[in-house]
Amino acid sequence: MGLQIVDKLIANNKKWAEETNRNSPGFFDKLAKQQHPEMLWIGCADSRVPANTIAGVMPGEVFVHRNVANLVVNTDFNCLSVMQYAVEVLKVKYVIVCGHYNCGGVKAALDGKQFGLIDNWLANIRDVYKEHKEEIYKLDSYDERFDRLCELNVRQQVYNVCHTTIVQNAWARGQELTVCGVIYDVADGLLKDLDVVVNSKELLNEVYLVDK
Ligand code: CO
Q: Which end of the chain has fewer CB within 10 Å, C or N?
């Protein structure tokens, strides 16, 4: 007998694998050979926002990177490596940044309270807050300000994806790549389109353009 939690994981997994094989015979045989995901998903590490589940897609359909508050930071080797592999090797056609309402990371940035090392990571959200301070201050309630900062954070991360050389070089090569933002409501399980779609360098501020 191993750890109880591991025993439980293995039992749940066995049930899931059997069910999946029953519903789609040959599913794992096919996936074992290769993956061809059409999209890269950049989402929050929050336990309530599992990418495949909320997007309603099977294993093999989405390449995933998650971190606290779905941030794309230009010094984050981890996120950049995921993006580079997804874009240049897997040749995904879409990068989806998915934020969510009630994000603890966004709340911490909004409230200005310390939680530890993570406050330095969340400084990236305070940059978004500062950039849009006037708009956020105009909103009447705390909840509205919180929701709006969650949305504005997604929007900024979409642009941060596009400011990388990874995405700009893909466009320069003529590779079709669309970066967009959605937000998930943990209260009703629904995704909302934030109507932020970037698919060419013409949509970027010129100061972020880095020609090869
Ligand atoms: Co979150």
A: N
